[in-house]
């Protein structure tokens, strides 16, 4: 038999796997690893000590510098809402039935005099009064309606069924999003009763195209730079969506419809147009004219409209059930610029009446 391989009787040692050269290299490497570990440990200790020292320093600084100032603690947020959102809808206690509105724009339609060379005598003031008749659906001792940007006075409440006055304790305007006028009464209104509220007011027209505003235009050619003889002004209204309250106090919500009896006081040589056809117009003195309009159909406040201008000429549409008139500047009317509008308006009105199966309720229709 051949020779058999045999394993050493004892377990192998490191000397069995390393040559003399390998052992010398391993021995040389051991001091380097030991040095790296010591450097890492030293850095860690240094950082730890730095953090501890920093924390101690901050605590000492707070106690010596900030602590005596007694800083306000952080607020605790509430777990629930602390107040309700603002109310923006009127209570359903009162239903308006009819408005009687008198409005007087003090606007000049042209500059008639120059004061101190540079200051024209123009004014944006308007004044008036309104009386709204309403039905009391539920008994209440407070009347809420809308008013914005108006100076109000002379509040008076009358029982329309008995003719007796109801005392007014106080009146105030609420400056929240609701823009309510709050009228506190001395006695409650009875459910089912008819009452009226009278108020005098004054306000300022703007040039921002809402509420009662002023519009400018030119008529003719200026003779020189700064010539105001060709400058013209007119007063007009834009009540949508909720700007009727800027012109007179009212229940300014679309669902609260009512009839409007309107009177416009305006300067001589001007014409007033409104929602309804004119009832009569006459001079009251050398400067002012009064124009009364027929009552309107029941409508929302945002449909309330009127204008005051020098647009005295008009072109009439062909005869029909509705008297349609077109107003414009004198030079535009003379040039025939309104002929097309006058001719086509009746056809457009008839189309929409047929389409919606609703007749236009007014006897007249005026366009500018």
Describe, in plain words, how this protein is organized in 3D:
Helices cover 19% and strands 35% of the residues. The longest helix is centred in the first third of the chain and has 47 residues, at 20-66. The protein is extended and about 110 Å long. It is of the alpha+beta class and 368 residues long. The protein has an eight-stranded mixed beta sheet, with no helix packed on it. Strands 5-9-8 form a three-stranded antiparallel beta sheet, with no helix packed on it. The chain is built from three helices and 20 strands. It starts with 19 loop residues before the first helix and ends with a strand. Among the domains are: 94-112 and 122-220 and 229-310, tricorn interacting facor f3 domain (Immunoglobulin-like, Sandwich), CATH 2.60.40.1730; 311-367. The protein has helices at 20-66, 330-334, 339-356; strands at 94-105, 114-115, 119-120, 125-136, 140-146, 151-159, 165-166, 168-173, 180-189, 194-204, 211-218, 231-238, 259-267, 271-274, 278-283, 288-293, 306-309, 314-316, 323-327, 364-367.
Tell me the helix content: 10-25%
Order of helices and strands: HEEEEEEEEEEEEEEEEEEEHHE
In terms of DSSP E residues, the strand content is 35-45%
What CATH architecture label of the domain at 94-112 and 122-220 and 229-310 applies?
Sandwich
The largest sheet has its strands arranged as 7-6-10-4-1-13-16-15
Largest sheet properties: 8 strands, mixed
Distance between the termini: 134 Å
State the name of the first-level CATH class of the domain at 94-112 and 122-220 and 229-310. Mainly Beta
Protein name: Aminopeptidase N
Subcellular location: Membrane
Cofactor: Zn(2+)
InterPro entries: Aminopeptidase_N-like_N (IPR045357), Aminopeptidase_N-like_N_sf (IPR042097), Peptidase_M1 (IPR001930), Peptidase_M1_aminopeptidases (IPR050344), Peptidase_M4/M1_CTD_sf (IPR027268)
């Amino acid at each position: 038999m051949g020779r058999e391989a045999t394993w050493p009787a004892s377990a192998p040692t490191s000397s069995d796997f390393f040559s003399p050269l390998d052992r010398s290299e391993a021995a040389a490497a051991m001091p380097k690893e030991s040095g790296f570990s010591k450097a890492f440990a030293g850095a860690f200790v240094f950082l730890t000590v730095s953090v501890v020292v920093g924390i101690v320093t901050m605590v000492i600084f707070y106690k010596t510098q900030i602590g005596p100032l007694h800083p306000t603690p952080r607020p605790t947020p509430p777990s629930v809402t602390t107040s309700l959102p603002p109310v923006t809808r009127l209570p359903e206690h009162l239903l308006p039935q009819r408005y009687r509105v008198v409005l007087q724009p003090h606007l000049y339609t042209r500059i008639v005099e120059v004061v101190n060379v540079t200051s024209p005598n123009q004014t944006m003031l308007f004044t008036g009064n309104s009386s709204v008749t309403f039905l009391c659906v539920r008994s209440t001792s407070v009347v809420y309606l809308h008013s914005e940007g108006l100076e109000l006075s002379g509040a008076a409440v009358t029982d329309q069924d008995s003719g007796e006055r109801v005392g007014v304790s106080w009146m105030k305007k609420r400056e929240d999003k609701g823009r309510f006028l709050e009228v506190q009464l001395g006695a409650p209104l009875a459910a089912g009763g008819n009452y009226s509220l009278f108020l005098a007011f004054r306000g300022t027209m703007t040039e921002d195209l809402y509420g009662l505003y002023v519009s400018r235009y030119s008529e003719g050619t200026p003779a020189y730079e700064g010539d105001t003889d060709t400058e013209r002004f007119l007063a007009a209204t834009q009540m949508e969506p909720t700007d009727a309250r800027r012109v007179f106090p009212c229940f300014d919500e679309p669902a609260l419809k009512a009839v409007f009896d309107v009177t416009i006081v305006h300067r001589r040589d001007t014409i007033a147009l409104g929602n309804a056809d004119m009832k009569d117009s006459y001079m009251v003195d050398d400067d002012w004219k009064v124009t009364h309009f027929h009552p309107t159909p029941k409508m929302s406040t945002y449909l309330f409209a009127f204008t005051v201008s020098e647009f005295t000429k008009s072109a009439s549409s062909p005869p029909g059930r509705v008297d349609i008139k077109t107003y414009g500047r004198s030079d535009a009317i003379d040039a025939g610029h309104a002929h097309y509008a006058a001719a086509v308006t009746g056809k457009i009105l008839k189309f929409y009446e047929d389409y919606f199966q609703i007749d236009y309720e007014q006897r007249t229709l005026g366009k500018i």
